[in-house]
Amino acid sequence: MKFLRDLLDSQHSKFDKGGKLEKFYPMYEMIDTFVYTPGDVTKGSVHLRDTIDLKRTMVTVAMALGPCILMALYNTGFQANTALSGMGATVASGWRGEILSTLGLGVNPANLIANMVHGLLYFLPIFLVTNIVGGFWEVIFATVRKHEINEGFLVTGILFPLTLPATIPLWQVALGITFGVVIAKEIFGGTGKNFLNVALTARAFLFFAYPAQISGDAVWIAADGFTGATALGQAAAGGVAAITSSWNEAFLGLIPGSMGETSTLACLLGAGFLVYTGIGSWRIMLSLLVSAGVFALLLNFIGSGTNPMFGLPAHWHFVLGGFAFGLVFMATDPVTGAMTFKGQYFYGALIGVMVILVRVINPAFPEGMMLAILFGNCFAPLIDWFVVDGDIKRREARNAQG
Q1: In 10 A of CB 340, how many CB atoms?
Q2: What whole-number distance in Å separates Cα of residue 58 and Cα of residue 39?
């Protein structure tokens, strides 16, 4: 690695201020700090020392997403192979089928490797388009503004593909991530200054702009001519009795849905890692879970003769749709979520109530986690302001008494 270090050092003057390639310094700095830790040190008095920085934070979240990525590959292939085998097909169609045949892998949902590879052939193009297009906009804005290319997009580039169905057209992936990066983040100043979650904003744009490719029954299973509603969509139509999957299958993630959101188990593994490392807020997770459970129980008690979602128990809400994924990876976003400890309880509780409210009261839109978190993002600064203002007033009152 000394050769690479020497190479980067020898090129530094060309990208530094006054160099021929000065305008491209953000790209040089991105490569340098991605491979090595920053060489600069603080001069003068240091008020805070910590081993954590943005890069380590983002890498930690990316590692926590590992189980969801693996489950996305397996379940995408499993759902496609199950559907194809049920229709009597022996191979997948198109270029994916040719690759699988070349590798000696047919349509076999019982074959772990066949499922993983088939799922990879759907996930990888979406992942690459997301990172190439999103990274392009990151570089453009960093170059124009003459600031470093930070690692904020690293997690967004993983989260966004995991929230999409496997059948989404790639041009829509490019358009969605463009909207998310440019409109939700860069026009507000970049990473750390956006108030809306970038990945969710990109997905929300696609949902409202192109609903046919991201909702309905025909988009969740990657098999031509095959339709299948998500378990949450089935519940919206006929309650728990209409769900064709078992609770255990929903918990494990062996159900149709967005590629990385189906497995509650995978999300829980990620949650444990984030809480253990101190990156994810357990306060937000806990308050969101409790408030959603209590509100669902309240609606169960109220009941409805026309809306079957009123009868959906809390333990089913927890394993359906993007509830677990949003709870662990989206609601806990340190940039767009509440930052004060006390505020995090209120922030999580607000999202928990909103997700059940959207799912139950509006059964035409059964998935409510996306909108609930974006709604919570809008109120997070206000929640923190009230918490801080309240603390200031209490201290002033104590000082006045003393």
Answers
A1: 19
A2: 19
Q: Residues 251, 208: one domain?
A: no
What whole-number distance in Å separates Cα of residue 86 and Cα of residue 359? Answer: 31
The reply to whether 211 and 72 lie within a common domain is yes
Same domain as 323, residue 309: yes
Give the 3-state secondary structure of residue 43.
coil
Place of tokens 């904003």: 201
Q: In tens digits, what is the pLDDT along the chain, a chain of 402 residues?
A: 666 666 666 666 666 676 766 666 666 565 666 555 556 655 665 555 555 666 778 889 999 999 999 999 999 999 999 999 988 888 888 899 999 999 999 899 999 999 999 999 999 999 999 999 999 998 888 888 877 777 778 899 999 999 999 999 999 999 999 999 999 999 988 878 899 999 999 999 999 999 989 988 889 998 887 888 899 999 988 999 999 999 999 999 999 999 999 999 999 999 999 999 999 999 999 999 999 999 999 999 999 989 999 999 999 999 999 999 999 999 999 899 999 999 999 999 999 999 999 999 986 776 899 999 999 999 999 999 999 999 999 998 888 886
Structural domain boundaries enclosing 111: 57-228
Whether pTM exceeds 0.70: yes
